[in-house]
Amino acid sequence: MAKLVLAGKANCPYYAKAEQLADYLQANLTDFRVHKITQHPDKWEQWLHDICEMNGWEHRQSPIIWRELLDRGGKGLLLGGVNDFLQYAQHYYGITSMMLSEEMLDIAEENLQAHIEIEKEEEEIESLIKPLQIWITSASAPICYQLIPLLANGEVFGMTTEISIHLLDTDQFKEVLCSIVMEAEDMAFPLLRSISEHTEIDEAFIQADIIIVLDDVLLNREVQSLENYIREVSEICQVYAPLIEKNAKSEVRVISSGKTFVNLKAMMIMTYGPSIKPENVIAIATSWESAAKAMLARKLNMNAAGVKDVIVWGNITGCNYIDLSHAKLYGYECAIWGPANFTRPLLNMIYDSEWIHSEFLSAQSSLSSRVCHCVGMLPAHAIATVLRYWYHGSPPGEIVSVGILTKGQFCIPEGIVFSMPVRFQNGNWEVMTELEINETTQEVLGCLAHELIQEKLIALKEINEMHPYGADKITSKIYLRQGGFFSP
């Protein structure tokens, strides 16, 4: 039995001519078999070099055709190019090809499009077979323990996407990590391909698709200054960023979360890892969004899920501004009813404006403390929610607050990580620059940017201590609170 292997560039007209003749021979001769291989034009030269070097052949053009000796084994017998094949077919079978040049070019173009489509399908299938590689730093933290079931149950990445989770922490927490691994394995999540613990920093982030940074510093002003804590965070990122560049995939997505310096961690990872794409590094603000929505829902005696479009501006775990000017209510029981998508402006529904000026303001003073001292369920849910949006899109029209690298949006200074309103679609995020903000809000944003610029300069050792924003620059309509701002 004769088996020929026909290989060539997908867009090669001479490959198309040889293919047409080979298909005819296979259809009409019982003992003739052909195996066809196409390569993308960009990959053809290297592929041809490799196949010739492996077999000891000399061939420089497309196509290349050889005969495999099925009954004898061993390497194939090189026939040559298209003209050699035509002579072979004429000599052994009395058949040749009369294909015209125009027809050869048309088929070559069809072959290229078919090859591209097949490659795309194979990549999609491969992505389903290969699990997403997720690395979590400081994995002994309670947030990680709560996060693993949310990542592994299929709701975040989809019910057909398998994941492998890698838990990274220092050697002193190895026993904790082993316990988490065993418990996760015992739960037998169908989509959890593997889970492992790591304590060697050199092996961190290998082939990572997603990195979730949970590292925190325990703030105690009596022990050391805020500036020293900032430098400590910077040193952690100075270790992580080069490892991400070296070991992770080029399109890796990095999420900064935790209880302290969330914006700064994202900023320093981009600073010390310049090849990491800035659009792939974000800081999570959803915990603060959710806590504020719940507080408002309790006042309105409604489900917190019906409160939408609360915006968290600025330094997520530092001074931030919770903006209600765009907030809406869905499903709120009032005198006016409408369909499921009918909304009411939140500020119009809170008739007790004094509550906003007093109780809500004072309640916000404890909001940061409550978020930072939660046992992990809220921030874990926040991370899972943002990841789901990043991969599958956020609800149409809905505002999501995320810390991203500024590029002058809303007149915020460039080059800091600042929480602002975005939407997620098609695997990317986009700042909602169409939202209108008033002068008062604009002034607040300038104040919040000042703190983040100061943190960045201290982390880079360009200044030694924080310089507070001038109190005289804050108008009486803006309420300053510990850990943030609120403007009705």
In short:
This protein is α/β, with parallel strands linked by helices and 488 residues long. It has 14 helices and 20 strands.
The number of strands is: 20
Low-confidence stretches are 471-488
Average pLDDT rating: 87
Helix coverage percent:
40-55%
Strand order of the largest sheet: 7-6-5-8-9-10-16-17-18
| Strand residues, percent | 15-25%
Using only C-alpha atoms, the radius of gyration works out to: 30 Å
- Overall shape: elongated
Number of helices: 14
Query: What is the oligomeric state here?
Result: single chain
**Biggest sheet features:** 9 strands, mixed
Distance between the termini: 84 Å
Keywords:
single chain; 488 residues; alpha/beta; nine-stranded mixed beta sheet; four-stranded mixed beta sheet; 14 helices; 20% strand
Description:
38% of the residues are buried. The longest helix is centred in the N-terminal third of the chain and has 29 residues. With 488 residues, the protein is of the alpha/beta class. The C terminus is likely disordered. The chain has a nine-stranded mixed sheet. The chain has a four-stranded mixed sheet with strand order 2-1-3-4. The protein has a four-stranded mixed sheet with strand order 12-13-20-19, sandwiched between helices.
List the topology elements:
Layout: E1 2-9, H1 13-28, E2 32-39, H2 41-55, E3 64-68, E4 77-80, H3 82-93, H4 101-129, E5 132-136, H5 142-152, E6 163-168, H6 174-187, E7 192-198, E8 210-213, H7 226-247, E9 253-256, H8 262-272, E10 281-284, H9 286-300, E11 307-308, E12 311-314, E13 320-323, E14 328-330, E15 343-345, H10 346-349, H11 353-364, H12 367-372, H13 377-392, E16 400-405, E17 417-425, E18 428-431, H14 439-459, E19 479-481, E20 484-487
Parallel strand pairs: 1-2, 5-6, 5-8, 6-7, 8-9, 9-10, 13-20
Antiparallel strand pairs: 1-3, 3-4, 10-16, 11-14, 12-13, 14-15, 16-17, 17-18, 19-20
Helix pairs in contact: 1-3, 1-4, 5-13, 7-8, 8-14
